[in-house]
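Incident log, structure service

09:12 report received: a user says their structure output differs between two submissions of the same chain.
09:20 pulled the input from the user's history:
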Amino acid sequence: MALIVNGEYVNDSLLFDELLRLEPAASSMDEVTSRHEAEMLRHTAEQRVIHRVLLRQMALQEGIQVPDAEVESERRRRWGSSSNAICGTGVQQSFRDELLIVRICEKLTKHVPRPTRLEVDRFYQANRETFYRPERVRAAHIIRNVDRPEAESEARATLEAAEVELAAGKPFAKVANRYSDCRGAGGDLGWIARGEMVDEFDEVVFALKRGERSPIFRTVFGLHIATVLERTSSGTQPLEEIRHSLALSLFESRRQNEIDRVLTHAMRQSQIQVVPESDAISADAQGRER
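09:34 re-ran on a clean worker, output below:
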């Protein structure tokens, strides 16, 4: 099946690509857990594709153009290559369409007001529970994977060698990059909250003070040495820490509401058909001839 939106043929492959974005694991519809979920997924993908087509059509109707130089700049930003050999016409057109959508969305929302400081304050006070943050630690570890019983003694010996260097004052990151099975970034795991790692890991790491190092301990993955680089207690995030991001989020929500309003009106005014692929191609060809 395919779509025809205001006489324009929309290839079914676009719907499939959108399905993969919505459900990356679902390479085919029979992988979705139920027929109802499959239908809901397809409907959402269909609506998103129609919305993008309508926005691009609006941009063209408004006379918005995207110069080739901007398309090339966007391609380089994403792909980092200066060669056009790996970028066919279809890919370039996809970049152009995306930039057209960005431009029309900017135009549609140019009069949307940014939230005032008072509006941000009121939203924060009315939704304080939304900004609760659990206890978190920024942890690093050295791990030796143990996938069979006989490998444990070798893994322990390696970590004991790492402990000797740590006790001698060598930086944890350097020791991790030398001894860990997960090299790079000095073993830094970033910020984690309880429940994000396995229980055995949480029990050890959340008991450590900042800068403290654990003894060798075991999880289902193998043997570890861990340290806590930073930690924050649980509680509501202070408004001043999140004011900028909150104001931006409220503004983007207003912009999206305006875009949704315009799209709802456009959907009512548009001719949208779901037809067999062969009929859609025929209709598109006839439209081009006219």
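09:41 both user submissions now match this output. Likely a transient worker issue. Closing.
09:42 reviewer note: The chain has two domains: 2-111+247-289, 135-233. The radius of gyration is 27 Å.
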